[in-house]
Design a protein that fits this description.
The protein is α/β, with parallel strands linked by helices and 521 residues long. 37% of the residues lie in helices and 18% in strands. The protein has helices at residues 25-32, 66-70, 75-93, 100-119, 124-134, 151-165, 181-192, 205-211, 230-265, 272-284, 351-358, 393-400, 404-416, 476-494; strands at residues 14-18, 51-54, 169-173, 197-201, 214-219, 222-226, 311-322, 325-336, 365-370, 424-425, 430-432, 436-442, 446-453, 456-461, 501-502, 505-506, 510-515. Helix 9 (230-265) runs antiparallel to helix 10.
Length: 521
Amino acid sequence: MLDSVSFLINKKDRIGLTGRNGAGKSTTLKMLAGIQTPSEGNISMASEVRIGYLPQTKVYTDGNTVREEAKKAFADLFALKDEVMRLNMELAKREDYESDAYLKLLDKIHDKTELLSIRGESSVDKEIEVILKGLGFKPEDLERNCEEFSGGWRMRIELAKILLARPDIFLLDEPTNHLDIESITWLESFLQSYPGAVVLVSHDRAFLDNVTTRTIEISLGKVYDYKVPYSRFEELRKERLEQQMRAWQNQQKQIKDTEDFIERFRYKATKSVQVQSRIKQLEKLERIEVEEEDASHITVRFQPAVRSGEIVVTGRSLSKAYGEHLVLANIDLDIKRGEKVAFVGKNGEGKSTLVKMIMNEISYEGELKIGHHVNIGYFAQNQADLLDPEMTVLDTVDRVAPDMDGRSLLKLIQGQQEQWRPYIDMEHATCYSDDNYWAALTDGKIKYIWNFHNGSEQLFDLREDPGETHNLSEDAAYQNKLSELRKMMVEHLSERGDSFVKDGKLMTLDTTLLYSPNFPK
């Protein structure tokens, strides 16, 4: 991941670590924080240097209010206060007023008391309120228990603790992931004026430009240090690589010309001196090496969604209140197909509330309708909290994705019928053209394929061992699924006034049950 890299962090540096995912940015921060140990080499710093490290994810402890949790940032201050109290109690018991030990105790109490005064023990609550307010907390939030907040808000509490601790160096791994625009702006201002060093990882380009003055790129195990913010780094990096490539190309031409000369006149006596001179020239030549670039990438192709109606979401007189607190009042909303919409506003103005109303996760007043054939993909603010930490990434995705057999089926149909491409629905394992409708009936594995074509209905049994005793007509689960599929077909055909729909029902000429050997491969 990292190969013999070296760099220096100065007292007031503002460093942005950049590089592809997996390049080693988070690993570098963990090593600097002492959480991980380098396989080779060492990290050296003064013993009194205090580090504040914010990881991307964290395991939280419950039981404290927001204010109590934030006070943990002052653990050393409270320990100092306890020590001063202990020393004063010890002093009160002493009677050897003229002894050296007594005088040394007085000096120690004086030094500790002065340090306690400098640290500002009396202003702890004020500092906590200022930092938490900057990160978006309301005054009443400070007395709520931490477990009442989502993972994103609890990460804000962790960030607040690190800011309150006032370390010599901040190591921040994606600090803006859970912040809104106002909180990011406040954090930018805080870090810009902070007297210590800052090393951070972020995919927020504007945040990097506003905070950092130095960029360290990690690529293929090497580091490249630029004394500029991120946007300027991108320009300089491009110029450097272009210059390097031109110099390499020029040198390669020079080398080839020299080698051609040597080969042409190697055995000619009158040119022997020149040939030997050129050979020595090549031996002494310092070869230019072009930096290897990380060209790895992933290609993701999303299947087109089923074409929805013109109106995707419509809302009229929408209102929502939490107790006596009115969040949204008489909202009218129309979202049309193809529009890209952002809900913006301060914390608590109702952005997430409106999304939850659209998802029907919470109750509300007014009328809200989802349009025809609208398939919603929902990424919640607390999405990370909804993941099962015991499951792998692959298992997590596989749980919600169609099974492989279903995807293969649709890929097969898609490849055979190019005109169906706009009508593929991967999530529900269905696809159709104007007069041909296919669907996969699945409970984890494909069991049946249903086809409706020109009034004829066919069901392909794909089970490995269908068995002679299985009677599909008595299988309630699959009959219910077939009913759903027929309703979907009715909706599709009704839009064009098809003759196979009558009185809201699908009119079939015949229904046939076939087994897997008859399924078209």
